Amino acid sequence: MVGLIANRFLQLVLLLFGISFLVFMSMHFAPGDPATIIGGPTATESDLAAIRAELGLNDPVLLQYFDYIRGVVQGDLGYSFQNNQSVSEAIATRFPQTLNLAIASMVVAILIGVPAGIISAIKQNSWFDVSSTTIALAGISIPNFWLGAMLILVFSVQLQWLPVGGLNAPFWSIEGMKQLILPAITLGTASAAMIARMSRSAMLEVIRADYIRTAKAKGVKRNAVVWIHALRNAMIPVITVIGLNFGFLLGGTIITEQVFAINGVGRLMIDAIAARDFPVVQGTVLLVATLFVVVNLLVDIIYAFIDPRISYD
């Protein structure tokens, strides 16, 4: 396990270097000039030249990249071009809302997906199985921006049960929970569909295994066979999907945050891309990449607790 963690840490470092290089070069070679956006329409050529000199945009691109990496290694993600705010502070301010949204969405996905998949496998080819499979396919196909808009129209505008958007209240309060419901459903629907399909497939494979037939032949009750013998072995691929989806949720809240006016990391990234704010874009991308790798490492560690037969030697 120690070797696995060390190997993944090395992969994380190399991955972040590669991602930072690609993002840095993409931002610098894309059309548009940050100095023009910062200076505004009234800026003169001398003003623009002064802004470029102050931000170091006149230096060779590779030199700019190495200066940036030197700062990252020292824990400095730089400062925003727009408001001169520390990128670390901007991310720290926005990240809790993104994390709360991702966790709430994952809870919705698990609570819907795992039971639906298991019941579908137990009652294969029944009306419930057909219905849940159809709904899962629809859940994967429906785009977030459309689903979010429809939920707002129905539950916020017409019924007036839930707030339109924003995550201003503490998430543990009643108002905070109300604000989380619609965004969490919007973001968690696709993940719930994928988890349901994987749970169904994994459970179908397990309940046909020899040891399950043996347990039934010995007179073990059906519920015990399903929830004790079969479920634990079926959860390995399900946990893989849950881990991957949670990583995607942390980096995939951009559209949902835009629809529900949530000031999270995704919305920060969109605003920074529009403003050509290089340091903020690079900082948010590095954060998402780091979280994705860390979540996958945690999934590998959980494997060993669920199934002691798994070895990483």
TrEMBL record:
Residue ranges occupied by any ABC transmembrane type-1 domain in the UniProt entry: 95-303
Keyword check for Cell membrane: yes
Main localization, broad class: membrane
SUPFAM superfamilies: MetI-like
InterPro entries per the UniProt record, alphabetical: BPD_transp_1_N, MetI-like, MetI-like_sf, Opp2B
A single GO cellular-component term on record: plasma membrane
Alphabetical UniProt keywords: Cell membrane, Ion transport, Membrane, Nickel, Nickel transport, Transmembrane, Transmembrane helix, Transport
Record carries keyword ATP-binding: no
PROSITE patterns assigned to the protein according to its UniProt record, in alphabetical order: ABC_TM1
Cross-referenced CDD domains: TM_PBP2
UniProt-annotated location(s): Cell membrane
Sequence intervals crossing the membrane: 12-30, 101-122, 134-160, 180-198, 238-260, 280-306
Membrane topology category: Multi-pass membrane protein
Molecular-function GO term, any one: nickel cation transmembrane transporter activity
Complex and partners: The complex is composed of two ATP-binding proteins (NikD and NikE), two transmembrane proteins (NikB and NikC) and a solute-binding protein (NikA).
NCBIfam families xrefs: Opp2B (NF045470)
Family: Belongs to the binding-protein-dependent transport system permease family. OppBC subfamily.
Protein name: Nickel import system permease protein NikB
Annotated source species: Thalassobacillus cyri
